[in-house]
Amino acid sequence: DCYELYRDVLGHCAKIQSRIAILDIQDGYKNRIQDGGQEDIITRFREAIGSENLSYAAVYYPWLETNITDKKDVCFDCLAMDKNEFEALLRETTAQEFFEAIIKTPVSETEEPSDIHEIADDQENQVRTAEEQIPFVDLNGFEITAEHYHLGLLATSPTYSKLIDELWSTINLLPPSSAMAGIYTAVDNDRGVWKSPANISVANVIKPTVNITHDEQENLNVDAVSGKSINAIRTFPGVGTMVWGGRTLDGNSLDWRYINVRRTMIMLEQSIKLALRAYVFEPNDANTWVTVKSMIVNFLTQKWNQGALAGATPEDAFGVQVGLGTTMTSSDILEGRMLIVVNLAIVRPAEFIVVSFEQEMQKS
User: Fold this and answer.
1) Which position has the higher pLDDT, 274 or 71?
2) H-type helices in 176-310, by residue range?
3) What end-to-end distance do the CA atoms of the chain give, in Å?
């Protein structure tokens, strides 16, 4: 059950607090509504994923038709490794072609009932001829002659050509999570973790498997019932395939609605925690507090200059508090606890940009 695994992953991310999950929709290569309107794969996902730790996940829909694997890499030796396997494949595909030819022949086109038998006899002869004429070699010489078999079958067998096309399409049909992990890394290196991983083109993609309209995306982005947001991947004319959503699953949360907010907080929190390890056995006094506060302020000022925090001044962007009577009591000091409070104003993406126009009319 993939949903049980998904829930375990979300629990792990919430416990470790240093990562998020990028999840795929099961059967995400299909249209949202299946079985004549009886099943909605997005609703199924929202119901099965649960309601815990949603801010630690981002979900994308639909899957992608890619060109990562070149068509020339899908060849004869991908299909068979010995004589028996290939003979079984040959019988299956040619037999299918044989029966399809009979079924697809309209009755109105036949002048005599015997025409059907003629078609059947002709197809049967082709099957026998194909089975008799294809030679086989032992496995030691298989790789040498595999390319010749491949080229020959492509030229003579429509069934084989169709099989290669279908296999190539299937291999290149991929869930978007792996591509999104690469996009996250590229955006982090180029702009920073605080930049939303959205409005980014996806490389090596032919198109999404499902074409999502603006109206369809509205329900993906904001669901009135569950509040669970699904990020759409869409194709735009003249632009290409774009990631068109930057929300976590926790779409109802004002604090953790956006992926970049959650990931920026993880980055800042983990960086500060790592730096504070050096002060574990230092005296819990005013000198240590001043040193710790200065270190954190310098770090956050640097991030503010880079654009990670919102505010006209550093004072507007963050605040750091530590000390007796501020964040700690005498009991805390006696028990060996140093408590630090950090307030942050993290940059949030502009999902909707409203532009107002005023047309000045010609005056008489």
Assistant:
1) 274
2) 177-190, 214-221, 259-276, 286-306
3) 73
The tokens for 30 are 């299909």
Whole-prediction pTM = 0.76
Using CA atoms, how far residue 152 sits from 42, 160, 162, 213, 259, in Å, is 45, 10, 14, 44, 51
Confidence of residue 186 (pLDDT cuts 50, 70, 90): very high
Cβ-contact 60, 184 below 8 angstroms = no
The sign of the torsion formed by the CA atoms of 124, 125, 128, 129 equals negative
List the structure tokens of 317. Answer: 């962007």
Please confirm whether the linkage preceding 62 is cis (ω < 30° from 0).
yes
Residue 14 tokens, joined: 């919430």
Q: What is the DSSP letter of 361?
A: P
Handedness of CA 43, 45, 47, 50 (dihedral sign): negative
Angle at the Cα of 75 from the Cα atoms of 72 and 78, rounded to 5 degrees: 130
Give, in order, the Cα–Cα distances in Å from 150 to each of 26, 120, 137, 160, 166.
34, 27, 14, 9, 15
Q: State pLDDT tens for residues 60-90.
A: 999 999 998 888 888 777 765 455 655 555 5
Contact 203, 64 (CB under 8 A): no
pLDDT in tens, 138-184: 444 445 566 777 777 777 778 878 888 888 888 899 999 999 999 99
**Dist CA 155 CA 251 (whole Å):** 53
Looking at 192-196, 319-323, 356-360, which range is the least confident one? Answer: 356-360
Query: Residue ranges per domain, the chain?
Result: 2-68+174-244, 71-171, 281-344
Burial class (CB in 10 A: 0-12, 13-18, 19+), 92: exposed
